[in-house]
Amino acid sequence: MVNYRFPDGFKWGSATSAHQVEGDNHNDWTEWEKSSARIAQLKKEGKDPSDFISGKACNSYNRYEEDFDIAKKLNQNIHRFSIEWSRIEPEEGKFDFEAIKHYQRLVKALRDRGIEPMVTLWHFTNPIWFAEKGGWLNTKAPEYFTRYVKYVVDNLKDRVGLWITFNEAFTVYAGYTKLSAIWPSRGRGVLNFLRMRRNITRAHILAYREIKKVYSMSHNVMVGITENNVYVPDTKNFWATWLRRLYRKLRNFYFFDRNTPHYDFIGLNYYHISRKPFFGEKGELVQRHEFMKEMNWEIYPEGIYHVLKDLSKFKKPIFITENGIADRTDQLREKFIKGHLYWVWKAIQDGVDVRGYLYWSLLDNFEWAHGFGPRFGLVEINYATLERKIRPSAYEYAKICLTNQLETD
Ligand code: BGC
């Protein structure tokens, strides 16, 4: 038996996002889910459109206490969730006090259970009024976003010390809405992709400054941003390796490279290896690995080590804000978590300042364009009855959370 101990004070938890778990949202995603074009497309693919409508999701908007009881039972001491902008500001400039009171209760519920809240301010969804104004292509988008952020932070500041402005905005969101357009998209194309990224960068910087202002030095607050990073392997071919490293740099570091004064920590979401650009595949230095079939992603635990090492050059603390597997049978989840945690531990030994690990996700949830198919949860959801059932692997993860160490044979 070998024990890999994590640093004292290391945070252990899990993550969710509003639209994926709350239920009954009314935003640009729900509009898209129900649009005739989307339904026709799904039917053409032979799919049942009702599996792709978020609807009640996990009904966590009402059941969050039950969910946090489970997180506590599983020895978690941090939880990442997101605030649904469309609930807070359903109409432009009109803030809903009931909605903010809900999130105040939610934060309190976490604190009462000894769980630190990590709050994401934007996780892929927008109010309808904002989308109708062109969304992130509108040059005023940064100001709209910052006004919402100020309202939220003013009302939650006493109990929250960890904020994330954007989730995967530059990679996954910009790519899926503006390049491949497999997500709700208005205004597709490379120019719009770049325009969107520029506006989101500005929005982040404005929001970062605003949050710092709200706390006005009196509190300890850390404001970060979360990005999705993939590991891209080198090949024996010099040019292929050059191209792949360039791709890795542009994809993984776009934001972090240019904006170092404007984030206090990095949120890393890591799921898989990516072999793009495809050129050079024959001489690849990393063998093929097992696939996460529900997402068609190639699992490569060592990749998280390389990604962490790469990110350490920015000299900021790192939280792993997402890492997880869609595995309805729960056959691979324990191995997946332990495999990745070994490489996180190794990165820490090699000097990377990793502060916490948040498994994606606490619950099975609405997986965006994939609908309710993929099952990422430590907890299984029966979508007909909304019953929660803790999966066996969750108890294995709970042991790690409790002892602050990974034990392997
Ligand atoms: C997102 C989550 C999503 C997960 C699995 C990340 O890209 O932040 O919302 O559920 O990956 O696909």
Overall mean pLDDT stands at 96
Number of strands: 14
- Radius of gyration (CA) equals 20 Å
The CA-CA distance between the termini, in Å, is 4 Å
Q: Main beta sheet: strand number and arrangement?
A: 8 strands, parallel, barrel
Bound molecule types: beta-D-glucopyranose
| Beta strand % | 15-25%
* Proportion of residues in helical segments: 40-55%
Apparent shape: globular
What order do the strands of the largest sheet run in, or round the barrel if closed? 2-3-4-5-6-7-10-11
DSSP helical segment count: 14
Instruction: Please identify the structural class as seen in this structure.
Output: alpha/beta
- Listing every helix as H and every strand as E from the N terminus to the C terminus, the arrangement reads EEHHHHEHHEHHEHHEHEEEHEHEEEHE
Descriptive report:
The protein is α/β, with parallel strands linked by helices and 409 residues long. Helix content is 42%, strand content 18%. It has 14 helices and 14 strands. It has helices at 18-21, 28-34, 36-44, 60-73, 85-88, 97-112, 128-132, 141-156, 169-179, 190-215, 238-258, 302-311, 333-349, 392-403, and strands at residues 2-5, 11-15, 78-82, 116-122, 162-167, 222-231, 265-273, 291-292, 297-298, 318-322, 354-360, 379-382, 387-390, 405-408. Strand 10, helix 13 (333-349) and strand 11 (354-360) form a beta-alpha-beta unit. Helix 9 runs antiparallel to helix 10 (190-215). The termini are close together. Beta-D-glucopyranose is lined by residues 17, 20, 167-168, 172, 228, 269, 322, 360, 367.
